[in-house]
Amino acid sequence: MKFSMLAIAAAALTAGVNGFAGTQMPAARTFAVRQSTMLKATEVETDKMAALATAANEARGLAMDSIAAAHSGHMGLPLGAAEIGASLYGSQMTYNAKDPQWMNRDRFILSAGHGSMFLYSWLNLAGFDLPMEEVKNFRQHHSMTPGHPEFPNSEHNTPGIECTTGPLGQGVANAVGFAVSEKMAAAKYNTEEHTIFDHHIYALAGDGCFQEGVSAEAAAFAAHEKLDNLIIFYDANEVTLDKMAEYTQSEDVLKRYEAYGWEVYDIDGHDLAVIEETIAAAKASNNGKPKFIKCNTIIGKGMEETEGTNAAHGEAGVPYVDNAKKNIGLPEGEKWFVSEGTRDYFGEVQAKNEATYNEWQATYKAWSEANPDMAKELEDAIADNVMSADDMIAAIPELNAGAEATRVSGYKVIQEISKLVPNYISGSADLHGSTRNYIDGAGNFGAGFDKDYAGKNLYFGIREHAMGSILNGIAYHGIFKASGSTFLVFVDYFRPTVRVAGLAELGRVSWILTHDSIGVGEDGPTHQPVETVSGLRVIPNVDVYRPADAEETVAAFVSSVTRKEGPTALIFSRQNLDQNDAVPAMERRAGALKGAYVAKKEEGDLDTIVLATGSEVQHALKAAEGRAGVRVVSMPCMEAFERQSDEYKEEVLPSSCTKRVAMEAGVSGLWYKYASKVVGVDRFGFSAPGDIVMKELGMSADNLSGVLDSMQ
C-alpha cells in the first residue's frame, strides 16, 4: 500500500499508534520516532529539497539513457529509489569524492546490485572520477560501469564502489561485515582525546535480498551484537522479477526486523523531506540497534507504461524512455542530461564534505603524533603491509610436533600469526572447540557477556552463509584480515561468498575448514566431504591449501595472510597425521609455500612419481619405502604450484617421468592433470571409525603399494 507520511500521521492520530485499516504498523515506540520525524519534515529547507528533487530526476534520466543505449540492464530500481540516492549522496553521507579511499568515509553498499545504474549515476553526479563517457559505456567491454558493481580489482577500478554485489542478499550481510569492522576499528584506535572512526554503513536492498536466507542470518547477528552504525534501506516496491511480490511472500518484513531487534521506520520512499529527516534520526540514534528503513516506492517511477509492475524491473521500459524523460521534466532530445544547477549543487556538497574531511585530517594528525605506534599499525593495516612470506616463515618457531591433526597444528600457528599480523582476526560458526582457531588472549567481539568491540574472536552462531558474507564485508572495509571456520563439508552453505571473494580478489579473507575427509569417521557421509576440496579448487583465484603435517600448516597460514591477489581456503584434518621429519621443517615450509615440493627423493634413476596431499602424504611416504626409483611429491596447493616458474615445476615434476600416480581422499578428477592414475574416493563414505573408513575406501599405504606394484 502506498501512502504519504502526512496521511500516516493523520490516521495514526485518529486511530492510535497500534495501527489502522489497511496498514500494519510497528510497535508504539518505533512509531513515536517516526511521528516525530513526520512533524519535523515540513521544516527542511525548500531550496535544498528542490535541488535534490531535480538531481533525482536527472539521475533517473542517466539510468534510462544508459540502459537504453546498452539494450540491457535493470531500470526499475534506479528510477524507483532515486530520492534515496539524492538524500544519501546529496546530503546525508560523509565522503570525499576526491579521496574515495578516505578511511572514515561513510560506506554505501548496493545489495540489489542489478540496479547498478543507480550507483553509477550518483557517483557521477557526486563528483567521483567516473566520467560521463563511462556512464554512457554501461555494460560494455573494459568500461568502468559493468553490469553489476565490482569492487576495484584487476578488471575494473571504479571509485566509490565499496563491494561486489549481484547475488541477492549478500550485500546486506556484507554491510554487516562493514559495520563489524568499523566498530572494531573504533574500539581499537579511537582514544579519549581523538575520534578517528565514527562513520556509518548504508545499504540499499529489495525484496529479493530479504527473501534470501543470508540476509536473515546476518540481520540476526547484527541485532545481537548491537551494530547501531548500520542503516539498511528496504526498497519496498512490492515487485519481484516474475510476479508482484505478494505472489511469493506474505510476511511483514518490517515486523521481522523489529523482532530481530532492529529499530524500524516505515516511510514514503519518494518524499525527500521525510527521507532526509528519517536518515538524520537513524544516524543520531545510538541505542544499540541497527536501523531498518522501509521505503515504500514505485518501481520504475516516472515511466507510466511500466511503473509499479514487474515489467519495470528490467529493460522492458526502453521503448518508453523518451516519453518518460519528458514526463519528469528533462529536456526533449537530449541524452545524459545533467543541469548546471545540479553540478553546482554537488560542488557545494563536495565543499562541505571537504571541510569535514580537512577537520578530520587535523584530528588524525594530532592522533598520529600522540600515538605513533598505533598510527604505524593502522597505516600498515590499511596498506596491507605485512612481512614477506619467507620472513614470516622464518619468524615462526619450529613446531617439533608429534603425530597430530593439522587442525591442532593450526591452533598453534594461528597464535603466532596473530602476533605477527596485528590486524588478523578470526571467528567460527559455533565450532571453535572443534576447528581450533580461537586466538588466545585476544578477547571476543560483540556486545554483552564477556564481549567488547575490540575482541578479535567472532562468534557467528550457526550462520555459515552470513559468516562468509560478513567476512567479505570486513575484508572490503579495508583494515582487518578476516578468517572464519567451520567443518569443510559446510563450506557449501557459503560457497557463493567464496566465489565472490575470488572474483573480487579479496586477499584479506580466508577460511579455516576442518574435518576434511572420510577420516571424519563416525559422523558418516553427511559430514565426510569427498567432493568439497575439488569443488573449491575449481573456483578461480581461490588458493586451496591441504597441508600434510604441522610444518606445511605453517606455510598454509603464512600464505593466507601474505597473498594479496585473492582468498585462501585452509583445509585441516580431524585425525592425527604423521610428521615427515625426514625433510627439515624449514624446507617443508618453503616447499609448501610453492604449492608442491619433493617430500621424498628417489634413489638413483627416477621411475615413478607419487603425488599426494594432506593426510594421504603419510601413506605415499610409507608406500615408497624400499622403492628406489619412486619420488614422493607433496602438493598441498595446486594453485600456488601453478604460479611457479616452468623451471621449478619441471624440477618437481620432470616431464620425462610419465609414470605417475596421485592419491587423495576425495574425488579423483582434478588429479589427472598431473597423473595417469589416481587413487581417490569417487563415492560417499559411511559411518564407522575413521581409520576403518579410510582403509575400506582404499586410503592406505598397503593399497597404494598394490597400485605401484601393478604399474611395474
From TrEMBL:
Record has DNA-binding as a keyword: no
EC number(s) per entry: 2.2.1.1
Binding annotation for thiamine diphosphate: H114, G166, P167, L168, G208, N237, H313, F490
Cofactor(s) named in the record: Co(2+); Mg(2+); thiamine diphosphate; Ca(2+)
Alphabetic keyword roster: Calcium, Magnesium, Metal-binding, Signal, Thiamine pyrophosphate, Transferase
Top EC group: transferase
GO cellular component, one term: cytosol
PROSITE patterns xrefs: TRANSKETOLASE_1, TRANSKETOLASE_2
Statement: the UniProt record of this protein carries the keyword Transferase: yes
Stretches assigned to the Transketolase-like pyrimidine-binding domain: 404-579
UniProt cofactor note: Binds 1 Mg(2+) ion per subunit. Can also utilize other divalent metal cations, such as Ca(2+), Mn(2+) and Co(2+).
InterPro entries assigned to the protein according to its UniProt record, in alphabetical order: THDP-binding, Transketo_C/PFOR_II, Transketolase-like_C_2, Transketolase-like_Pyr-bd, Transketolase_bac-like, Transketolase_BS, Transketolase_CS, Transketolase_fam
GO biological process: pentose-phosphate shunt
Catalysed reaction equations from the record: D-sedoheptulose 7-phosphate + D-glyceraldehyde 3-phosphate = aldehydo-D-ribose 5-phosphate + D-xylulose 5-phosphate
Signal peptide range in chain numbering: 1-19
Descriptive protein name: transketolase
Pfam families per UniProt: Transket_pyr, Transketolase_C_1, Transketolase_N
Site entry (Important for catalytic activity), positions: H74, H313
Active site: E464
Binding locations of substrate: H74, H313, R407, S434, H515, D523, H527, R574
